[in-house]
Amino acid sequence: MYWDEAYKGTPPWDVGHPQPAFQALIKGGEIKPGRDLDIGCGRGENAIMLAMSGFEVTGIDLIEDAISDAKAKAIERHVKVSFVAGDVLQMDRLFMEGEFDIVIDAGLFHVMTDDERPVFVRQVHRVLKAGGKYFMLCFSDKEPEGYGPRRVSKAEIERTFTPLFNIIYIKDAAFDSRLGPGSRKAYLLSAIRS
Ligand SMILES: C[S@@+](CC[C@H](N)C(=O)[O-])C[C@H]1O[C@@H](n2cnc3c(N)ncnc32)[C@H](O)[C@@H]1O
Asked: Fewer CB in 10 Å around end: N or C, the chain?
């Protein structure tokens, strides 16, 4: 599988630090203390950053090796995070309804296929409390076509999430990647579970 292979080395998204777009959300008070879930957490940098900011954090990723690395990193940094191997499309097997105040997503939604997107949205909706928030960073259609996941338009984000979420904003943002800081154009979504 692509993801298994990717984690045998250092994939392009694995920058070894949290995404600045999420750090800014904490600094700006948009991500407030509570129970947070990082979906597609990879090797855990964003989840660990949230935990270091005082939040109660769970991270989930499909790939066992990424989860083992994330667990080791959290121990090394003396921070408590619950890292779980599992499929975001089957979170109803793992988490209770309304278990989290916040879900963050750095680069997971944009790898979902058209068929997976509605399932994904229902699963994220289910794990959030009423009024809970979803923050998502995905490749934007302003990023030139080429290497990487498919680009996502604002209209697609709106279409996919509006049935179950109220969109607060979709902002131009950037991903740090191994090509450099802010090297990939992104959209940052803030949405509230309706
Ligand atoms: C682009 S990477 C981003 C990783 C991490 N958020 C980061 O910023 O380093 C996407 C991640 O989603 C994970 N993933 C893909 N499909 C998944 C699924 N169905 N359930 C859980 N994780 C998944 C991959 O294993 C990978 O770690």
From this structure: N
Residue 23 lies in a domain: no
CATH code for the domain of 148? 3.40.50.150
| pLDDT (tens digit per residue) in 24-79 | 999 999 998 899 999 999 999 999 999 999 999 999 999 999 999 999 999 999 99
Range of the domain at 113: 98-194
- Please tell me whether residue 101 adopts helix, strand or coil conformation: strand
Confirm whether 138 is domain-assigned. yes
Report the DSSP beta bridge partners of residue 172. 187
Name, in order, each residue with C-beta under 8 angstroms of 27's C-beta and a sequence gap of 6 or more.
Answer: none
Q: Residue whose CA is closest, atom 2 of ligand 1?
A: 107
> Which pair of tokens denotes residue 97?
């309804």
* Nearest atom (ligand 1) to Cα of 105: 6
Q: How many CB atoms lie within 10 A of CB 9?
A: 7
pTM value > 0.90: yes
Atom of ligand 1 nearest to the CA of 45: 9
Domain-located, residue 106:
yes
**Cα first-last separation, the chain:** 35
